[in-house]
Every structure is written in structure tokens, then in C-alpha cells.
Amino acid sequence: MTLLAALKRFMTARLLSRRVEFDWRAVPRGAYLTLALTVAGVAALRAAAPDAPSALARLRPPPSPALFNLASLGEPQTLARLLGLRLQAFDAQSGRYLAIASLPTAPLAAWLAQLAALDPRRHYPYFLAAYVYAHGDAERLHAMADFIRSGFDADPAGRWPYLAHIAVMLRKAGDLASARALAAALRQRAPADAPSWARQLEIFFAEQQGDFDAAIALTVAMLRDGAVRDEAEARFLAQEVLRRLKHARQKRAKP
Fold first, then answer.
1. Strand (E) positions, 144-188?
2. What is the C-alpha to C-alpha distance for residues 237 and 168, in angstroms, rounded to an integer?
3. For residue range 58-93, what is the model confidence (pLDDT) as tens digits?
């Protein structure tokens, strides 16, 4: 018997004014655990929620990891999911909707890191960082990039898409140096089944920086090491080497 079914049976009997003998021991322990986790999750995030309408945009740092471990009751993955949903809903308070970019960067990054620590195998915090919270000013973008890079280092096979996405966002923001650094990590550690464009991002960024020598060297290395298995793609990259060599000569020939 589930907790919901037990409550329904009890309330129905009360409404009909019938005497009922109810055995609460029939309710499975998992139902109580789910209820306790829900209450604990709401209480943990309530501590970080603002108390007054004037403080709607405030997101406080998360409680200590020890408190989260206590609140999880041995189910940190479940608590991570509940807190993740609550964090996503933080921009809707008291009937008002806040711009996500207005959330303070440091507490937001701390919450994402805590969610990742509670459930290390889950990729959802990195999805949120890349596709939801990376928009805003340069500080926010770089904070999310640092968080995603740390997650990629721990699990390149599962988190390379988020690193590729944030690298492209850095490129669009005009920070080619940071974008190229992340692209280098992709080239070195992306799994074998990752699409070739992910490993070639560093080449594109190097060319956009005007570093044709590096772009040529990286392309030749990929062709030499057998990183490109498709013949048509290999021919395309070989043509790109010739094109970049031409650009490099023209660049050097200019006074």
C-alpha cells in the first residue's frame, strides 16, 4: 500500500464517520523515505530562498555538504533531483519572474557544483550550466565554462557535448583564447565516437585567431595519426591544409 493510498483510505473512512482500524505498518518504508526526502529538499532550498519581495533576485550560497548528506537520508541522487528542480524554478517567485541573468553568479555556480557532488554520474547540472545559465555577462559565462571543464575532466565521454557548446559560446562572445583552450581539451580527450567537428574546433579557432601555422600543424597531425577515418573528410582536410598554407604565405608576404 502506498502512502497516498493509505491516506485516501483513512480520510474516506473519517468522512463517512465509520470506525476503521488502520495499520500504518502496512505502508512501505520507501513511501516514508520519499516523503522525508521531499520535506528535507524543500527545507534545504528554503534556507537559500529570499524572505521578502525586495530580495527576490537573491540566491544565497548552498548549505554545507554535511547538511546535504544529513538531509539526503542515504539517497543523495534523489535529493539532487529535487534540488535541481527547485533551482530551476528559483526565477519564479511570488508570482514574479526574474531574468535568469540576474541571478548572482557565485551562488549559482556553488549550487550546480553541489548538485554534481550529490550525484556525480548525472550530467544534468552541466546541461543547465551550458544551455540555461551560461547566458549573461562575461563573468557568468566563464564561471559556467570552468564548472563544465571540471566535469569534463572527470567524465570526458559523457560531458564532451557541454564543453563543445560552451567553447562555441566563448567564441561568439569574442574570447577566442578561452574557447581555443577548451577546444584543445576536446581534441585531446574527446571519446573516439565523438563527431570529428568536436575535435576540429581547435583548428577552426586557431585559424580565426590568425594562427595558420598551428591550424596546419593540428590538421596534419590528425591526418597522420588516423584520427579521421572518412576518406571524403580526409580529402577535405587535406584541401584545407593547402588553403591555409596559401593564406599563411600571403600573410607573410604582406609588408
1. none
2. 21
3. 788 888 888 888 888 888 888 888 888 888 877 776
Report the sign of the C-alpha dihedral through residues 86, 92, 98, 100, in that order: positive
| Distance (Å, whole) CA 85 – CA 128 | 11
Q: What is the mean pLDDT of the chain?
A: 80
Cα 181 versus chain centre, distance:
19
Has residue 164 got a pLDDT over 90? Answer: yes
CA nearest to 229, candidates 201, 185, 186, 193: 193
Write the CB contacts of 115 (distance below 8 Å, at least 6 apart in sequence).
80, 83, 84, 87, 122, 124, 125
Give 196-239 as a 3 state SS string.
HHHHHHHHHHHHHCCCHHHHHHHHHHHHHCCCCCCHHHHHHHHH
Instruction: For 4-16, give the secondary structure using H, E and C.
Output: HHHHHHHHHHHHC
Supply the pTM of this predicted model: 0.70
Find the distance separating the first CA and the last CA of the chain, reported in whole Å: 84
3-state secondary structure of 51: coil
